[in-house]
Structure formats: C-alpha cells, structure tokens
Amino acid sequence: METQSIRLRLVFEDGSLLSEAQRSDGMNQSWLLVEPNQHQKISDVCNHLLHSFNLRDSCPNGILLYMDGFVLPPSESTRILKDKEILCVKRKEMGLAEAIEGGDAGNLVDYVEVNRKEPVNNAMLLLTNEEEKLEDESSSVETVSKKRKLQSSNHRVSGVEGEVVRLLSQMDSSSSSSSSDFAYSSYWHLSSSSSSEDVSSSNTYVCNSHVLSTIAQATFLLFHDTTSSSEPINTTTIDREASHDRLVQDYFGENPVYGDEIFKKGFRMRRELFLRIVDDMEREFPYFRLSWDARGKRGFSPLQKCISAICQLAYGTIPNEYNEYLSLSERTSRESLQNFCTSIIQLYGQEYLRKPSVSDIQLLYAAHESKYGFPGMLGTIGYTHWTWRNCPTVWRGQYMRGDLEFPTIMLEAVVSQDLWIWHAFFDVAGSNNDINVLNQWPLFNEEVNGTASTCPFQVNKVKYKHGYYLADEIYPNWATFVKAFTYLDDDKRKKFNATHESARRDLEQIFGVLKSSWRVFRNPARAMDPRKIKNTMYACIILHNMILKDEGLAICPFLENDRPTDQKGLKVNQDTIEELRCQETHNNLRLDLVEHIVNTCVPNLDY
C-alpha cells in the first residue's frame, strides 16, 4: 500500500531567510509537498527545504521546524505530520561549541548552587574538585559545588555543570570535532532542559547527575588514552571533496585521464549511460543527493556512491576495497550498494523487467525463426544457482541440496536470441528443483487469467494458440515447452535435436555473460537477508538489459502504450490451465516442428 503524500503549510517568520525575489513572490507563506517514502525523518524535510528554497547562505547552521510553538527534533519521523499542518521555519542559531570558541559561553549557563548527597563513583571524579579527597567511594558524602570561572567570560557557573563546561573547553583544542560535538550536544541538551530555578529540586538533580556522569565517561574514553595519556590520538581526516574532484578528473572531465574504452571495460557500460543513471537517482532519491552534515562539511557526491556500487557489482569486491580512492567507509559503501540496487529496480524495472507485449512477441517469433528455424518460439528457459555461504543456520536445511556443498538460491530465467532476459524468478530455496520452481513462478499468469495477448502461429500447416519455450528434459511435457528427443530413431530426430541444442546455447551463454560482466555472482552472496540478495540479482539483470538496449542489440523496442494488461483481481481460467499443460498438444507440436526443420534450410546453424 503506497503512503499518501502530505501537504504542509510553511511560514517564514524571519523574512531575511528568503531572498528579495522570493519575498516579492509571496513565498513567506508557502505550500510544501512531502513524500513519506522519500522524506522519512524531519532532517530529510529540512534538507529538502534548504535545497528547494536556497537557504544555505542565509542559514549556514541549518534550520529548525516548529509546530504549535514546539520544535520538531531532526530524528523524529515524518509520520508525526498531518495534512495541511502549519510549520514555522526558523534559523538554527550558534551552538555551545561555537559560543565557547567565540568567548560568549558565559551567557549560556546561569549561576547555580546545588546541595546534594549522592554516592561517588569513578566517573564523577572527573567532574568534582581535584582538591577534594575521597576516602571511601561507596560511602555517601555531602558536598557543595564550587563556583568556577570560564576563561572567556566573567560570568560564574558552579557545581557539576561548571566542571563540564571547563572540561570540554580545555578538550576542544586537542580533540576531534565529531567527538567534541557529541559532548557539547549532550551538555547543551541538559542545560536547556532545566532552568536555574528547577535545578535545586532533588529529582531534577538526580537526573542531571546521571546524565553528566554518562557525559564524563564518554569524554574520558573519547579524549584520553587509557594506556598513556601523553600519546596523541590517531585520527583520520577524510577529504571527500578532494576524492570527488579526483574521480571527476580521471573519468568525467572534459579531458579525462581514462577514455571511453577503459571506462566501458571497467564499469561495463558507456559513460553516457552511467551518467544518465546517476542523474535519475539524484533526482528521484534523497540518498544520492549531495548534502552537508551538521558541521557544514560536504557529504559524498552521487558519483562516489554510484561508482562504489558499480565496482562491487562488476568486480565482486568487498565494500571497503576502494576506500582509499573514493574515501568511503565500509558501512557507507555497503549502504550505497543496497540503495543503488533498490533504486535501479524502482526506476527501470517496469521497462527492463517487463513481460513481452503483442509487438514484442511478433518480433521474437520472426527473429527466432530466421536464426534457428523455430516458428512460434518465445525463448529458452533454464536455471542456475547462486551460492549463499552466509545463510543463517535456521534456514540452511531448505537452501541446501545434496549435490552442492553450500546453500544456494535459484534463478530461473527466459532469454531470447539477443540475450535479453524477459522473465526472471529469483526467490526460491536451492533445495527445490525446476518443477517446484515452475509451480511457484508466475510465468503463465497472463494466459491463466485471460489477459495474455493472442499471438497464434502456424507450423507444418497446423495453427497453435500459444507460443513455446525450448527446455531440457527435466521440464514437464506441456504445450508451452519443446524438448529434445530422448531416443533418436531416425535422421529427422537427430537434426531436430542438433537444432534444439544449438538454440539452447543462448541460455547457457546468458548465465556466463552475467557472471563475467557482474562478478558478484562468482562469489558467494555476502548478505544475510535474502531480500538484499534478491535486489542485487534483479539490479544486475536490469543493468544487463539496459546495456543491450544502449548498444543497439535489443530485438524489441520499448513502447509506452504497449504494456501487458494488469492481472490484479482476475479469476483463474481452469480451461486455459488444461490447454497449457496438454501433453497431446506437446507431442503434436514437436512432431510438426521436426517436419518443419527438416524441410527448412537455416543458414549458419551449427548442427
């Protein structure tokens, strides 16, 4: 069930957020359409507003959204929003870390004096006065917080809060920005949640003391080496923008270092096709859009994420194989691959995983008859296995097979003469055989539901209603399958079997092409979720068909108005099922094909 879009009413109380042209157009009060599938959190909506209204110059620290006078946290889900909700957009002010660096920290904390009685633990020793001597940590002591002065202000802060500010101010100069932001944000959340009048209450203070204890432990682990405090902390600086510029210079510049042939060999497709995929993903999916983090630092570009995903599919490498070149971490590379495969299916699945239409079937009939001498042939059908070593133990029984060493997932596909994959079914445990997969595969749903296009053909002066697929001996004797003869009594059957075998090489060739182009199939599947493995398989099949069309090798063009009929809500036709599974029609069709092939000369056919 698709999630409905949400219409929001935006109010910009501060007119300086918008440009003069935007204010003159009356955009102080605007409508905004939010797609819950794309904007799952409030932070996604904020990034969308920054991009749509060009607010990055006027709001360098970001924006905050208010509803009924209350702020919406960035991590909150957009399900909290309702249609026609009124949101107030405000500029995000300077945080605690910037205030301390700018010498204005004294205005952030009020003078507080707290009398407390609580157990002393090791973490609190970081926050108490260094001159205090504690003889027994488990005993209860009564202390009075002492007033501290901040170096950048004459304002006084006291007690545990003052110690946190002093500690973080000293650590800010020698610590990484990400760790410092964590401690500052934790303290700021605490100081803003309670005023100076409420701190005197015992309940509020107990809560604050526990939060401050956690902050103290985190800052100690982040900023100090437990073995030697004098040794510097090893930090890694990731220059994402430099990595992007290097990638553009090597492959996408006006005079790239690597030309078109090297690009196609390395990334399996032409540069123009790849750029079209990147542009479509950047336009449709927020994950692939360029964004900035809370510190104002630039994130990874769409090119970096898509290149990482393509390399993992094309070479079957581990996620962090190209982290030195692309500056992507292992987690980001893995997320890029998952989002890339999902986006490929959503964007191009309707065209490149479509079922053949009326015009497609007619073109397939003509192409197969001219090359192989089989009139009415739709393609060849077969299967392969993809090893899944990381299969969970509880599922290994249903994915194991006696003749294979590891669990596998089966792919059953139909391929035409141009190596276009028309049908693909990849969701069956490896312990099944072709018959079990065929019973689960919706290959003949259109014929059974009565929505299939009528495309009859004639063989040996006999008219047949449904097209057929070339299959091996394991498939049943249905009217839609044509198999080779088991016993060769005469020369006619020998010639038919040779022609049948030559035509079925397309199927064996397509599995080899997939495994050579997308080497991820050569290695065992790494994901533990079968849905992710399924998305990877379908994404590679779609990319394979896209490359065929881009190179002009596809037999059938895509016609927007020539789509198969929707099958939802249709009843099953039992008579059609009997027609498809009729063994007599299977035998008669094969005999007619024998006579047709014997009397037909097919050029360049390897018997």
What does the secondary structure layout of this molecule look like, with pairings?
Blueprint: E1 6-12, H1 20-24, E2 29-34, H2 42-52, E3 63-67, E4 70-71, E5 85-91, H3 96-101, E6 115-119, E7 140-144, E8 147-149, E9 156-158, H4 159-171, H5 177-193, H6 202-223, H7 240-252, H8 260-267, H9 271-284, H10 302-315, H11 323-326, H12 330-352, H13 358-372, E10 377-387, H14 396-399, E11 408-415, E12 421-429, H15 434-440, H16 445-449, E13 457-459, E14 462-464, E15 468-470, E16 481-482, H17 491-503, H18 505-517, H19 530-550, H20 574-580, H21 583-598
Parallel strand pairs: 1-5, 10-15, 15-16
Antiparallel strand pairs: 1-2, 3-4, 3-5, 6-7, 8-9, 10-11, 11-12, 13-14
Q: Any low-confidence stretches, pLDDT <50, length ≥5?
A: 96-161, 171-180, 189-207, 225-229, 565-570
Neighbour order of strands in the largest sheet: 2-1-5-3-4
Q: Give me the oligomer status.
A: single chain
Please work out how many helical segments DSSP would assign.
21
Task: Report the sheet with the most strands, covering strand number, pairing sense and barrel closure.
Answer: 5 strands, mixed
- Domain count: the total is 4
pLDDT average, as an integer?
A: 76
Gross morphology is elongated
Structural class, judged by helices and strands? alpha+beta
- Alpha-carbon distance between the termini? 52 Å
Strand residues, percent: 5-15%
How many E strands?
Answer: 16
Radius of gyration: 33 Å
